[in-house]
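Morning. Coffee machine broken again, so started the prediction first thing and wrote up yesterday's gels while waiting. Chain of 534 residues, entered below exactly as on the submission form.
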Amino acid sequence: MTGRGEPVGRGLTGRVPELVAALADARDMPDGEARFAELDRIAARADALGDAHSGLDARFALVEAYLLHGERWRLAEPVRRCLAAVDRSPGLLTERPGDAELLRRHQRYAVEAAIGTPRVGLDQARALLDDLTRRAGERSGLVAQLRCRLADHLGDEPTARRRYDDWAAAEPDPTAGCPGCLPARRAELLAGWGDDEAALATLRPVLDGAVDCTDSPERALAVALLPWLRTGEAERAGQAHLRAYRRHRRERGSFPYLAGHLRFCALAGHPGRGLDILAEQLPRLDHPYDDLSAMEFAAAGALVCALAAEAGLAGRRVHRPAHGGRPAAEVDVETLGTDLLTLATGLAGSFDARNGTGHQSGRIASWLAERPLATPVPLPDEETGDDPTTDAPFTPAADELAPLSLSMIISVLDRRGDVYAVDAGGVVVGRWHEAVIQFRQVGRRGEILHARVVAARRLPASRLTEAYEFCNAWNHDRLLPKAYVHDLGEGELVLAGDVTTDLEHGVAPAQLGVLVDAAVATGVAYADAVAALP
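Came back before lunch.
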């Protein structure tokens, strides 16, 4: 791929061809350290050669690769270098206004990632936030939100509350995240400060169905679990837990919500169910969303284990899969609880050492000291005999918005009657006439549908100029797919293209069907045009 979808050849004024080709090769590499290192090398080489556009493109690709691979803590440096490049060359984004907004989103992700890990210095987080303030203004809702969350993370509740008021009064900012998710984010803060009634009031528009967001209903329910439990609405909390967990148990981006489900089971008098959930979700702890969510999951799991042991379940064993140098094992509840406690307190200590406070250690200690609030809360499954931990994955109706998922993509292809395969990385691959097409999810939450088409016919490397001209003509005359040339370095050229659709706010199965139909139709047309070349 060249220059974030720019056509090869013409329109690359000021670019170094070898870097354009290297970036195309890097984008085709498997996710992982080798790809990260190559993108970083290309960016450094672009800096040395004065190719600002290629340097920016390489770092954008590196940020996206980190997000896709679950390495959010590494965002700070490439984002900082992107910002510095734009400062040196203010016209760098003039012809690409969409990338200006994307860069601000990446800057938000970098600040959020710094809050979520002790591996990034607090000075780096503050520097990124100060830079964002300089660009967006102190009155920006995004700035107020991030300053509120950082102050809360540090345990500075008075400052966090002041920033919360600024955030609530600010105008909506499209780069601040999904507007439908903001009530849940605010309610999390309020509940953490002990304002359960205010938290539930903040969630009310979402719970009443007045917010149009596919993530909001279940996220809001998860946030409301403990406030409902603490304010005497235990039955409602039980229903909310069952509904939200049906979705959160499988979705890749839902890991941060699992601690709330575990704490609910512990405090609602269901340590056995908590162990069931812990056993099911334990493998995800080896690949967490970030260190903060890993700490919270481990603390909530340690609480479940402690209460389960008190309830006479100490002899139960839980399978823990192998990871790194740790062998697979069947561990008893007390041993697992000790391991989780060690992890949670170790991470809390790392955060506090970075932050210069004792807030995170104190917060985790307060969680571990909690005990059930009342007699066991009745759960709907106890009355119906339905076990929600064995439910099928969440399946939306044809016109119901839901987060993009691999199962949804597969369902569309099944309905079409297509033949395809799914590789170990979750990439769906099929062949339609002269086109090989891949469908994959990219983005921080897998919310972006990326379709890549490769023409079956290959051209000899001697026809490189002709291939460039063909791709430029296609990009001039056609909207999709965005065409480019990939030189294999083996005497052959691959003509490929891609279609990327951002589905941050969800997609209905019927709509996804239209998108897949269009990707296949335009991909086949492109491959047929390549096949028809002299």
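The CA atoms of residues 20 and 433 lie 30 Å apart. Going to sketch it on the whiteboard this afternoon.
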